[in-house]
Amino acid sequence: MESPDASELIRSQFNRQAENFSNWSVTQNRDYLQAYFTFCEMTPEDGLLDVACGSGEFALFAAPQLGRAVGVDISDRMIALAQERARQARITNVTFLSMMAQISLLRITPFP
């Protein structure tokens, strides 16, 4: 497990890079997102837990095709971007949480 100082450093670095990461061509590539979705063989009855979701591109892509999606990331800024995009797209079956995944995932109940 990361020390509190290391976790804060990681959070700070990803917060600082959030907008650039979110606008990066790879995260916006719909063909890649579809390929990942197809590879996972997801069905409308499935739920998605996207750990280290960044600004939520995959969760936002997948959520309309699934029962529920949850994205988790250590970066508050990345999560804020994901939440805003979900709001703008009117995607209501996705939740984004800012937390250290290795500690907090067990608190997400029930899933899916």
How is this structure best described in words?
The structure is a single chain. The chain has 112 residues and is an alpha/beta fold. It has one domain (4-107): 3-Layer(aba) Sandwich (Rossmann fold). Helix content is 48%, strand content 14%. The chain is built from 5 helices and 3 strands; from the N terminus they run ααβαβαβα. The chain has helices at residues 4-23, 30-39, 57-62, 76-89, 101-104; strands spanning 47-51, 68-73, 94-98. The protein has a 3-stranded parallel β-sheet with strand order 1-2-3. Helix 4 links the parallel strand 2 (68-73) and strand 3 (94-98). Helix 1 runs parallel beside helix 4 (76-89). The longest helix has 20 residues, at 4-23. It starts with a helix and ends in an 8-residue tail after the last helix.
Structure annotation, total helices? 5
Spatial sequence of strands, sheet with the most strands: 1-2-3
Straight-line N-to-C gap: 26 Å
| Percentage beta strand | 5-15%
> SS-based structural class?
alpha/beta
Shape: globular
CATH class: Alpha Beta
Q: Can you name the CATH architecture?
A: 3-Layer(aba) Sandwich
